Amino acid sequence: ILPDPASSDFPPAQCQEIDTICISPAEETLAISTDRGQLYSMNLSSADTKRDGPLHFEFLSQPFHSNSITGLSICIRKPFMATSSLDRSVRIWNYETKELELNKEFQEEAFSVALHPTGLFILVGFSDKLRLMNLFIDDIRTFKEFTLRGCRECAFSHGGHMFAAVNGNVIHIYSFTSFENILNLKGHNGKVRTIDWSLDDHRLASCGTDGAVYEWNTQTGKRESESVLKSCSYTGVAFSSDFKTILAVGTDLTLREIQDFQ
């Protein structure tokens, strides 16, 4: 499939190779998948298949990411979900209508993404900076930059008045009103992989490649509880629904529930 220069859709950067083809039972529609993870369709009844030149393919539903997804964030007050990817794009999806709301391509790969609870702002981590952006109807535009290199994990608090961003083994907490760095949470010996805010935003859970799961006080910056298992490199952490325990999962393929250091 050749990129269509006249199309208002998001043309891929290069030609796509077709992987599979199937035809509908009535033989009216042709559906294809490509090596860049896209699904297209073509109306066979109206297509003049005898003509020379490229055929016109339309997206079967909407364009998908064509490389690994690196970050995902769900909005609290709007039916939005944001994804970042190594294909250098950030996409906003509407999970009620199942449609792609916004697609923005950047000059470099996006490592992490976080939606503000209002659905009006978005944080995106790049190799050189963490960018805070406005979400418009048809665009995503930067209005504040933070010098955090290679931020692979970031998250807004539930109230939206703070956000946390990871830089290696340090978690930086910023005020969303003043944009000041108010706390730096230090204690992990390896890279921090995941962070999760408690519902009242007074606590933050984190896990890392060092096998540590920590619970932090976001008012004082002190570590309130910890669980270290050096044989496991943790990849995900979350508070339980009642926020009394912490759930963690890692390379030993075991889901752990941690409470009172146990």
Detailed description of the structure:
- The chain is elongated.
- The strands form six sheets. A four-stranded antiparallel β-sheet has the order 1-2-3-4, with no helix packed on it.
- The N and C termini lie far apart (56 Å).
- The chain has 262 residues and is mostly beta strands.
- Helices cover 0% and strands 48% of the residues.
Task: Spell out the key features of this protein.
262 residues; mainly beta; four-stranded antiparallel sheet; 23 strands; elongated
Uncertain spans: 6-12
Q: Give me the strand/helix succession.
A: EEEEEEEEEEEEEEEEEEEEEEE
Instruction: Count the E strands.
Output: 23
Strand content: over 45%
Largest sheet: 4 strands, antiparallel
Structural class, from secondary structure content? mainly beta
Helix content: under 10%
> Which shape, going by the Cα principal axes?
elongated
| Tally of alpha and pi helices | 0
As a whole number of angstroms, the C-alpha radius of gyration is 22 Å
Distance between the termini: 56 Å
Mean pLDDT over all positions:
90
Describe the strand arrangement of the main beta sheet, using strand numbers: 1-2-3-4
Layout of helices and strands, plus pairs?
Elements: E1 18-23, E2 29-34, E3 39-43, E4 58-59, E5 69-74, E6 80-85, E7 89-94, E8 99-105, E9 112-115, E10 121-125, E11 130-135, E12 140-146, E13 154-156, E14 162-167, E15 170-175, E16 181-186, E17 192-197, E18 203-208, E19 212-217, E20 223-228, E21 234-239, E22 246-250, E23 255-258
Antiparallel strand pairs: 1-2, 2-3, 3-4, 5-6, 6-7, 7-8, 9-10, 10-11, 11-12, 13-14, 14-15, 15-16, 17-18, 18-19, 19-20, 21-22, 22-23
